Amino acid sequence: MRLFIVAALAIALLAILFAVQNTNLVTINLLTWQFRESLALVLLATLAIGVVIGLLVSMPALIRRDWRNSRFKRQVDSLEAQITAAQQDMAAQSEKQGALRESYDTLLGSLGLMDSVTGLLHQKALPQTVSSLLRRLYTEVEDPHYRSVCLFLMQAEPTAQQTGILATQEKLLWQAIADILQQNAAVESWLYSDGKGQFACTATGLDEKQAADYGEALQAFVVKNSVPLQDGSVVDVNLSVGGAIANRSHPTDGVTLLQQATEALNQAQQRGRNRFRLLQVSA
Asked: DSSP character for 197?
């Protein structure tokens, strides 16, 4: 801004010097009028007329630009209001879902279906849950949320360098892994645990690629960093994941789906540490 002020002052000074040094009179003819004015005044007047003409020519473009900017600003304000409203609605929905899940957990805990170590559903409820999901898969054919049923079995264990952790730390480790899975699992998923390092997850509505991506993501959330425990220590973990997916093209039952997921987990463990294996139920 200061640079522009200095430039304007310099131009004004040059104009004054020009006017002082060019005082010769010249004759100006305009239609039927005739004037005699100094050369400097004539040139400065011509320059002013040129500036005015330039402003008049550019004025429509400036007005159109201001109008577009004003319109874009109104659109931005409208979109920001819509985004804010959507965020508030999502927050309200998440709060409702959290409260609903908490009430479910309370009910399941009162029925003795919660694992006391991790706070997840106990794995003993898994066969009944899988059978119920499969029934909905075959009966609610119009519901896109039940176009498939996926079951993931996850076996966690400390790495070879940390196999000697204390029994109390093992419980803290299973709790920490459960917290990680709960924080990153999809809202429609349900998590299970046996309290001894094996976890399970049921999900619906995924195709085979989505199921593979989801299983690998759950594994990555656990193994990408050392797991922090509540006592302040950290533990490196291996997590093998085996999954099975059933859809209406290949009818099956809960026992078969559990067997397929167990077989996938065994294959993943045989391949090495932190492996993932997904099987499509075929019978």
From this structure: S
